[in-house]
Amino acid sequence: MIQSLYQRLSLTISTVLFIILISFVTWTQCVSEVSRSQAEQKLHLGLAEHLANDNPLLKQGVYDYKALESLFHTLMVLGPSFEFYFVDPSGKLVTYSAKPGDIKKQSVDLRPLLQLIEEPHNLPIFGDDPRSFDQQKIFSVAPVYNNDTLQGYLYVIIGSSAYDSIFTQISSSDHLFQHSAGLLILVIILMFVAVLLFRYITSPLKQLGDFIHKAEEAKFDLTELTMPQWSNSDNEVHQLGNSVNQMLVTINQQMAQLTELDSQRRQLLAHLSHDLRTPLASLQGYLELIEKQHAKPEQQMHYLQVALKNCTQLKSLIDQIFELAHLESGHANVQFEVFNLGELIYDILAKFALKTEQANITLTVQPKTFDAQVYSDIAKLERVLTNLIDNAIRHTPSGGNITIEVSEHNKQYALAVRDTGLGINAKELPYIFEARYKASNSQGCKKTHAGLGLAITSRLIRLLKSEIKVDSELGKGTEFTFAVRKATDALN
């Protein structure tokens, strides 16, 4: 069973070529036969008329048919390629040059004879062959009159049976057979060359198909495949091969990313489960102590305060989880507007005044007064600054400083949140904005926190069409910087 494209193409094209060859040979023979008949009939068109005018038996009308038959035999000896017949006005044979046993038909159709007499330019015209029931041949014809009375027609067939026999022998001769054999060999060679060309053309396509099949078996893992090299030519198959290679590289990268994302998702779920379980277990424990009612009122109040603290921590974590999920879903709306950056910063500082005072941390703004009109989403920018300041407070020891610095750079204002806290290890800096990651400086931190603030901050910064950068050194502090657009330049 033929399966490959190369085999199907070879068989199809070979069959088509063979049919075309047979059709061409047949058509050529037909054209050659018609052309030969036309030439011979035109060459001998006046033969019957000359015989009728030059021969006394025919010139004055036919009376002696035996003498006419003898004349026909004599003419046939002189011209063996002709057959002579005398036909009466009804088409019946009166006399002829052939032997009586060779005649199959005793009459001929007069319509071709009259057509040749009236339209001698419309050649070839074929008439009935009395030696055959259905065969027709070219001829020459002339009417024979006695005074003005039509006695019949001199009907001369061009190409007698002897001529046909000799022509058949010549056609079947060894010389013609050799020519036919040579033509057949030439056709076979051409078909063989065509098959080789098809193999050359389709081999890259077969190579590409085999490679794609191997890629499917390897589940598109390029580590188990050797990609074929394709030239950068105008060959469409090579161009397709390069596209397939690039497609497989992209698929492999995306599969690797999906695998990594799935791993990160699992780790994030594990971390979140732990973060949720810790305050929930503490809350449950203290509530159970209160339920037993054995503790003193002072102890019960302490238990309630701890339980409330755990509830607050649990709510903060759940809120952050929902906020992060909303940001990653791509459905978060951004509403850009013009507002005063200084007013927003001092409003945020007012929220943290009590918290920094209790932690003995100094929170300042540089410069202290400035008028900066920016174009951004005020709610999301407030959330970013709140997260960064809260993160700085959490990792800054008592007596430390947190500074919010605003500077002008071209068409933007750069904001920096700088602290003198614990700092972050340089190896951990590329990962601190991942939701699943918790830096080592958070281990053992006594201040409660959810751990998703920087992940949320990073995604909010992207929505604000900016980029956050971090610079940190262990024991010296951390600085987060990002930029917001000026209102005048953003609206122009």
UniProtKB/TrEMBL annotation:
It holds the Pfam family HATPase_c. The keyword Protease does not apply. Residues 271-488 form the Histidine kinase domain. Its EC number is 2.7.13.3. The chain crosses the membrane at residues 9-27, 176-198. It is found in: Membrane. Keywords: Kinase, Membrane, Phosphoprotein, Transferase, Transmembrane, Transmembrane helix, Two-component regulatory system. Its main location: membrane. It catalyses: ATP + protein L-histidine = ADP + protein N-phospho-L-histidine. It is an enzyme of class 2 (transferase). The keyword Transmembrane applies. It comes from the Bacteria. GO terms for molecular function: phosphorelay sensor kinase activity. Residues 199-256 form the HAMP domain. InterPro entries: HAMP_dom (IPR003660), HATPase_C_sf (IPR036890), HATPase_dom (IPR003594), His_kinase_dom (IPR005467), HisK_dim/P_dom (IPR003661), HisK_dim/P_sf (IPR036097), Sensor_HK_Regulatory (IPR050736), Sig_transdc_His_kin-like_C (IPR004358). GO terms for cellular component: plasma membrane. This is histidine kinase. It comes from Pseudoalteromonas phenolica.
